[in-house]
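Hi again,

Forgot to attach this to my earlier email, sorry! This is the prediction with TXD bound. I've pasted everything inline since the attachment limit keeps bouncing my files.
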Amino acid sequence: MARSFQRPKIALIGAGQIGGNLALLAAQRGLGDVMLFDINDGMPQGKALDLAQMGAADGFDVSIKGTNKYADVAGADVVIVTAGLPRKPGMSRDDLLDTNVKIMKDVAQNLKQHCPEAFVIVVSNPLDAMVYTLKKVTGFPKHKVVGMAGVLDSSRFRLFVAEKLQVSLLDVTAFVLGGHGDDMVPVVPFCSVGGVPLAQLMKKADIDAIVERTRKGGGEIVNLLKTGSAFYAPAASAIVMAEAYLRDSRRVMAAAAQCDGEYGINDLYVGVPVVIGKGGVEKILTVELSAEDNKALQISASHVRELVGEANKRLG
Ligand code: TXD
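Structure tokens for the complex follow:
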């Protein structure tokens, strides 16, 4: 059977701070043709035109278009959803639930109609409740709907460890599991520096400080920026996930996936170690956690379940 050499189509629902950077990164990596969607009239078209005009200088040659019509995202292979309000100083991610669950329902209804075969990566906050909402409203299979938070949180943890030890962050591996909130779970025994367990290289007090800074990593940036939340690292983190799907690279990473019994958690999206390849979330890796980390994961999951309960009340 002839193989299709058509470039993948990547739809970005939300063309704001993260959406614009997603488009740039996808183009620079040649992941496929990009369609930026937003309800803000003209904005996705303007960003797309500006990005397209960058191609000659920067050396990429993919199609980048912007639209306010969902029909234009039809047939996308990958959809990355950043539609929704970001935090302002003093706000928790949970404070966004009321507004963003309504937005997520609208996005999901449109994706169900226009992109039924897509691998959907949800970024909008509160992340775990938003990815649950999108999965519930679209009815897409659970392996085709995933949330981006763990790659970002793990990336923050890796940076802080690398800075403290004065080593390359490329040699630091880490996993941050659980909900994308202040009770997320940096699993310290899974952190290694060049294969050496972190606990052999750093005092517990310093590790604890990095765990705390990672948990508050989003708020630290919100307080500095004052006008919104992080967007460069979240965009790069979502692109890692999209690339693993499009290139079938079976990357192992932390991501919000639907657990149905894994880690003793049922019918809930929460950050766990997954394998992402051409089948989407191909596997949830069920690994042994210390009693302390497992307890922390259960506490984080119970917070996610409360948020999902609030989302369900609004979904009716
Ligand atoms: O790790 C993570 N998952 C988080 C996610 C990391 C950082 C930011 N996190 C969340 O992503 C943040 O709290 C927000 O909920 C989303 C998007 O953040 P971003 O910084 O990109 O927000 P912007 O710049 O406000 O962009 C949001 C866009 C904006 O252009 C709106 O016009 C658009 O969303 N929007 C919509 N697009 C489509 N459809 C609807 N209904 C809609 N409503 C708003």
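The CA atoms of residues 9 and 76 lie 5 Å apart. The chain is about 40% helix and 20% strand.

That should be everything now.

G.
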